[in-house]
Amino acid sequence: MEDTLDHQLHHLLLDIDLIYLGINKQVLSKHNMRRVRYYTMRHLYLTPDITLGQLSDLTLVDRASLSRMIFSLEKDGLVIRKTNQTDRRVFKLSLTEDGNDLFLKVQVDMDADIRQRFKRLSQETKTELLELNNRMKVILTQHAADMS
């Protein structure tokens, strides 16, 4: 197994991702919510009237799995499906008032935890990390596009 700087960076990013996802899982478990449901609701909060296809692209969840989750969210009264009058096969998804309230309640705990995660870092370090990670995001986004 190679141990180049590229490989070290790759494994460090994977480790950070797993730690970060684990922290999010702990915060969300207080609300009996799984990460995928939270991220789906987050996208619906940020982009109301989104199509299933757009939501699938944003969440990286395949349409069939996402459709089942949307059905569950609808059953729980958290999501509403609005049918397009000209093409009944197309529908837009939005959070209901209850869905919006639940998301904001969960988000209060998430925001508090996010502040705790980074409180040991100086503003200068946060700015530097943000700049470096934004550069990484651009590079990885281009790499993903090149692979398609």
Descriptive report:
This protein is mainly alpha-helical. It has a two-stranded antiparallel sheet with strand order 1-2. Helix 2 packs across helix 5. The longest helix is centred in the first third of the chain and has 25 residues. The protein is globular. The relative contact order is 0.09. The mean pLDDT is 94.
Structure at a glance:
This protein is mostly helical and 148 residues long. It has helices at residues 5-29, 35-46, 52-59, 63-75, 97-118, 123-147; strands at 79-83, 91-95.
- Total beta strands: 2
- Measured distance between first and last alpha carbons: 27 Å
- H/E order of the elements? HHHHEEHH
What is the percentage of strand-forming residues?
5-15%
**What is the overall number of helices?**
6
The radius of gyration computed from the alpha-carbon positions, rounded to a whole number of angstroms, is 18 Å
Helix/strand/pairing category = mainly alpha
* Major sheet: arrangement of strands: 1-2
Shape: globular
Which stretches are poorly predicted, pLDDT < 50 over at least 5 residues?
A: none
Primary descriptors:
single chain, 148 residues, mainly alpha, two-stranded antiparallel ribbon, 2 strands
List the helices and strands and how they pair.
Blueprint: H1 5-29, H2 35-46, H3 52-59, H4 63-75, E1 79-83, E2 91-95, H5 97-118, H6 123-147
Antiparallel strand pairs: 1-2
Helix pairs in contact: 2-5
